[in-house]
Each structure stands twice: as C-alpha cells, then as structure tokens.
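Self-study notes.
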Amino acid sequence: MIATPDRTPLPREFFDRPVLDVAPDLLGRILVRTTPDGPIALRLTEVEAYDGENDPGSHAYRGRTPRNGVMFGPPGHVYVYFTYGMWFCMNLVCGPEGKASAVLLRAGEIIEGAELARTRRLSARNDKELAKGPARLATALGVDRSLDGTDACTSGATPLKMLTGTPVPRDQVRNGPRTGVAGDGGNGDIHPWRFWIANDPTVSPYRAHVPRRRRS
C-alpha cells in the first residue's frame, strides 16, 4: 500500500542548511502552485545544487547582482531567472541568509492539476513530459519572473508552497554532473551536484554543455 504524501508545509529550517544537504532531501517533496485557474501539485524527481560564490556554475559566483539578489536569502524563497531569451527556471534558496546558494528544480511528476498543466504544455507527448526539464517545469506551473522572491515557507496564502511529501530513501537517489554547465562547474568529478530518483520516468536526460554559436 502506498502511503499518502504528507501535506505539512516544510519549515524554513529545512532550507537553512548547506545546499548539498538540502538538494537530495528535496526529492519526493511536493511543490504546490496556486493560480486563479486552480492548483497544480508537483512531486520533485530531479534537482541541481548551486553553491554561490564557491561554485563556478552558479549565477552568484561573481557576487550579488540585481538578477541574483534573491539567492542571498532568506532561505525558503523562490529564485526565478530568464534564460535563452525565452524560458523561465525556478530555484529554492537555501543556506544562511547572506550566503548565496540555491537548488534548481529540474523535473517532477504532476500529481494534481494535470489538466491545467496540459494547457500550458501542448507539446508534451504524455503526462510524464509535462515537467521533464527545468523550463518545462516552470512552464507547466505558470512560473515567471513575477514570482521571483516568493516565500515558499510562509504559513499564509502564497502562489508557491513546499510540502513535506514523501522523502526518497537515500539508496534510490543518484547523483552526477549537472546538465548543460560549462567548465569546471560541469565537471562531474568536481561538482556531481545533480540529484535524481533512480528509474523515475519524469527525470530529464543528461546533456553536456554545448557552446552556443554566434550568428554571422
């Protein structure tokens, strides 16, 4: 018999830890997106850790900017960025306030509100692809920069909230190089900081970084 996921909100203390402790512990947790059209709930199956100024793959590697300011805390807030001129991606901020670190939400299983998610992801061939990748995840949930800085741990009403869910046993967690990250940040021997649930069909395929060519 499958246990019902715990719907208790995750406390801020959960996120006020080192990013490499938080990232694998987010697998199996539930993210709820509340919209005027209805709620969507997603079970996290794949994440990546980014350790701020200690991490050449992080947006905060060279310090604070207007774009990455949310990464510096408080923990439990949502950091949303725009990439490639067309996609949004979302992260959960962790670690002590003032030290930038965050976990990129790479993939998940839509467990409630699939009908609404399908209207946003018309190219998905099946429900397993609705949130299979960070841009797809944000699109399915209707996440954009207007949600940057949202508190996902508040006890009050919020458009994004993290719930306890069902933590994944550590023997089912895999890790490896981060997807599409250049240089040392993408070296799996140095930063094997992508974490996923073994054999889960919603996990995105690994892709190494490919330099973008300039248009002539």
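Second protein, same conventions, sequence then structure:
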Amino acid sequence: MAHVLVIGASQGIGFETVKAALAAGHQVRAFARSAERIALSDPNLELRQGDALKGSDIAAALTGVDVVVQALGVPARELLGPVRLFSEATGVLVPAMEKAGVRRLVAVTGFGSGDSRQAISLLQRLPFRLVFGRAYDDKDAQEMRIRRSGLEWTLVRPGVLTGGRATGRYRVLDTPSSWRNGLIARADVADFIVRQIEDRSRIGKAVVLIHHALPV
C-alpha cells in the first residue's frame, strides 16, 4: 500500500479521494488549510494543515510520500475575478516534488482544460467561457507546468460534477476523438484517482471522465 498526499482534501473531489484511498487500504495525509475540519477518523489518516501556496508547508507534507493527488478548487464566488490558485500552487508543488524525489502526481483539472477545450460543443462554448473562462485559463497554465516537469503525471479532467455515491460505471475517455462533456459523481472521480496509485498505464496521459454525455 502507498502513502498518499491529497492536496485540497477538505472538500469536493479531494475529500472523496481521501475516503476512497483509506477504503483501499492506503495511508493518507490529508492536506488543507482547514484540515482540522475533516470529519474522518482512521488509523491510516493524518490530517495536515497547510497552505498549498507556501513552499515550506508543501515540502514538509511531502516527507515519506509515494504519490501526490492535487485536487484543488476555488469557491464559485471567486470565478468572476482573476484565478491564479491552480498555476501558482502547481508552481510550488512541482519543484518541491522533484527536489524530494516524489515522482507520481495525479492532478485534477477539468474537461475544457488544455487541448480538451477543442472538444467543447459550439452551444456550450459561450456559457463555459463566461462562467469558467478565468479558472480554466489558469488550469491551462497548471497543466503546462505539469507537462514540462520530469514527474510521472496523470491529468484527470472530469466533466460536470455531481454528488452521490460512486457507481463504478463511469467512462474513461483517453483519446481526443472520444472527448466530450458529461456528468460524473465526485466519488467516481475519486475512484479513478485511487486506481491510478498502482496503475501506471496512464502515466503521461490526460483523460476525460464522464458517466454519461450531455446533449450537444
């Protein structure tokens, strides 16, 4: 079993990943500014409070780690202003991992980031740009920084996120011709992420995750 650092562990996909990794028997270090609020108890869980933008916090959190999951998010209210969290946090994380010798990184970005932006349908492009444009410009920079690194990375691009339990019936779209938007539960995204801890077949690849496609 691996020792997994989850950055952005207090909510959303990060929180679901913590639960899924513990259920799979891994040791988990849950890193977040509000880590003390994580309402989980497990002998394999360590709560680590810290700031993803602070180099000393990240360096300390990497000690003894085998795999890093980066699952950062920003509140909806911040989407209308400049967004820099994803690129700046990645600019801290990547060199820290390289220095610490931690090579495996699974990073959550989203459908519409990087080259998957070309797969957004014409009807969805304008509202996507208006609502998520600033965040996804920053996710583009995040992905570019990861791709330029010497890490063993996998980029995870979920579609529209929903609640609910994991179904295990999601689709992994790993070729550009197959990419399309769709719904997927955060718990299913977490299931895929945890599988990548031991599955090395998608190192150096970006995948889109959906349960079922949205109408174009």
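Instructor comment on the second fold: The mean pLDDT is 90.
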